[in-house]
Amino acid sequence: MLSPAERLALYGVPDFDAFQRAEYFALTGPERAVAERRKGPTAQLHCILQIGYFKAKHAFFSLSAPTVPAEDVAFLVERYFPGNPVTFRPVSAYEQHAQRTEIARLFRYRLWSATDQAALAEAAASLARRDVTPVFVLIELLAFLTARKIVRPGYTTLQSIIGDALAAERQRLAQLIEVGVDATTHAALRNLLARDDTVSELAVLKQDAKNFRYRMMTAERRKRETLAPMHHAAKNLLPQLGISQQNIEYYAGLVHYYTVYDLRRMRPAQSHLYLLCYAWQRYRQLSDNLIEAFEHHLRQIQQQTKEAAETAFVQAQAKRQQDAPRVGRVLLLYVDEAVADGTSFGAVRSQAFAILPRDALLTAGQRLCERPISQLELRWQAIDRAAARFKQNLRPLVMALEFSADPATSPWQVALRWMRDVFAREQRLSQRPVTEIPPDTIPKALRQHLWQFDAAGNPTGLRGDRYELWIYRQTSKRLASGELAVDDSLRHRRFSDELVKADREAEARKNLDLPWLDQPVEATLERLCVDLDRRWQVFGRELRPGKLKHLDYDPQRHTLSLRKPKADRDEVALQDAFYGKLAAQGIADIFHFVNARSGFLSALTPLQPRYAKKIADDDSLMAVIVARGIGYGNFRMAETCDIAYHVLEETDRQHIRLASLREACDRISNFIAGLAIFPLYTFDPGLLYGSVDGQKFAAAEPTIKARYSRKYFGKGKGVVAYTLLANHVPLETELIGANEHESHYVFDICYHNTTDILPAAITGDMHSVNKANFAILHWFGLKFAPRFTNLQAQLPHLYCASGHARDASQLLPPAGQIDRGIIAAEKANIDRIIATLGLKEMSQSTLVRKLCALPQHNPTRKAVFEFDKLMRNIYTLDYLRDPQLQRDVHRSQNRIESYHHLRAAIAQVGGKKALIGSTDLDVAITNQCGRLIAAVIIAYNSILLSALLERYQAAGDQKAITVLRKMSPVAWQHVHFLGRYLFRGNRQPIDLTALLANVTL
Question: Whole-structure pTM over 0.85, yes or no?
């Protein structure tokens, strides 16, 4: 039997004592949308809280339906509004409407009416083209209503609007597919699903390469050739469908989960849509794989030839130095007075051979007569020896790709086409006449190394192997700079092609509702620049007299450092002592306990629930999640639990998907946010901090995304789990390669957060800082707050906004001045970038990489980096002046470090800190399962702490509540990960009252 407090927790009523009721009800805009989207609270409970707070015209609280038990309402009113008169009586519909109208008037909202449904349905239809997932459409519709100050309609109404929009979108796409797919494409798509003996062609296409070796890349090229006609059809048809890149990825992802049998049973239009999206994405992904393999092999060849040339050069120098003294002694024989003039030359030669043997003397003499070989020539000789390698590994990759150039007359594109024609005729480059060589591809400094010459010094032909590798090196450079591009790829398209067109930009302006897009750029820059200069003035006044006690500044050395506060070790000891008092529980029992309260397992629906033969039970779902998360796998888990292997395998195949796992994690996150303890973790009531950081995991099996990192993986490969955390709750995680920069994914992981917990400030370490993150996060209404570990390193990045701030009297003068003009001039292009990111047409990682690859004089690149510089300086000066901000950022980052310790402990249960999976998708699913296990443990600890909080609040023990604020839910010493897992029989349900009966702080 639940207590009133526990029942209210199920409704998701926030703790207004800690959350500050006045601030909660004063929220407007996106913040209010966050508060109103809490899952669970009924309209009656919110009505009670609102009327009680505002002391409106009603002196009673009425119930018109038995949705909320009367004792719960009485407990709520007594808890939050003690002493208020409470009267329960039936009310008429008129009185209920009057109460709602009064509340809406107080908040300057208006009630939902039937006339609003058409506008909301139109917005839902537009949103479905951006992202077809129901959660996204729901969140955006709630934001739509909040922006227009309309009270949201009932759940059934929203469900109906969203369902109709998604159904209409499916019908629209089906009609376009039926008309757009010709007979040839139809036959090709059906052939993908036809079985050849035991394996379908689609199953072959789904297989990922394990590495960049020759055989693997040969298979990748064959897959690409198979998909070429379908990709061509998709390339023509998908633009006509009018769907976003996000939806294309969603539909393509479904092909990974549906079996060939499932796809055959679908309606042709539906399966054709999935397969066309898959062909479009997979073909371009294969192009990226070929380019990455090309870059990988080229780096290896260049590194090895460089090392071989350096070794040969050092050996030649050492040999020359070794022979020099003895050659000198031979030469001295000609001036030796002891050798008479009449001595025969044979005798002198005998003495010379005694000093240096004949062959060694001959070699040394020839070496002295010849011009010393340069290190560059040794490098080209090493390339000659490596010709067989790059012909085998590089040539097939480059020749399989179609490059475009900007400008179209690029000599490097001409050279690539010429080489393709020569190789297609099975000829050598050295056999072609000199007149065929593409002009402007051989610089003067390299002519002696790339041309062949006759005795008269005239070029007679080309050194084909050297020229081929030279073109490959230039191709790599031009791909990085953007001069060359591969249009049919995901990551190597031209930057201008990635940006949305003008019509889509107008759509983004209407839907994104961002201040930067709506406000004049001059006014925005003026306000920000005034703020920056004001901060400079205040910082200068406070630094000179030594008012900033947390900073140490040496005026002679011009060095700035931070005085680190003493670590509070009592918190760690207190936490260990608290969790040490709790009886240890098995992970299976904790799963059951958390699921009974949050219902997160209900998100793990089968891919096709209508055709599913059997709905998986909760026990099997828990077993599969634990098996993947701890690195056991289904076979090993079947040996150590009470569920058969075939049940685990079928459950895994039908229910464990990235989308469903994310939804399950979101439900746990939202559940934790509704607990009483959650607001106590917010150390700044006016600003919710989130933190991002990456954690290295070894890869149990090689995949394309797994890369080498000697520091973390030794001789093995691994990946990085990049995570967003807020108030100890892991909100989102993504896998990136160990070779990728973490700062490229800060915005992506924040923008993909689908929980009700929306942090307004994002902290990170120095790996999260680049030249665009401050700008991008500001444009989307977020504050970027990295932790600066070395303040001295930030001084060269300090700029002011106007000339008067560069006063000679400044103790710490700015390094330069912000160029406002270039930012204002590029407002239109910046808006296109924002629209592209907002519509999910391009990821931040692609944006930053392409921006950095643009020429330094590119105005868009300079404008984005300049605005980032402006926002970075505003934050940096705040960070230097405010010790509380430094502590908050530091604490936020410490929380994600604690979470990483928990994730490492979960992964190491299987014996090694690794993620299992044979493909990148499998590894990503394993990472999500590990996050889900961590979220379950954090939810379990939060439930325990919330129960204690309610006990101490009822007793009025403020001292205990203060201690409870310091307790972290990220702890696992009281959790059993090992042993025999009992998911079904002989379980011991957790009794919360008995567990906490003798626990005190």
Answer: no
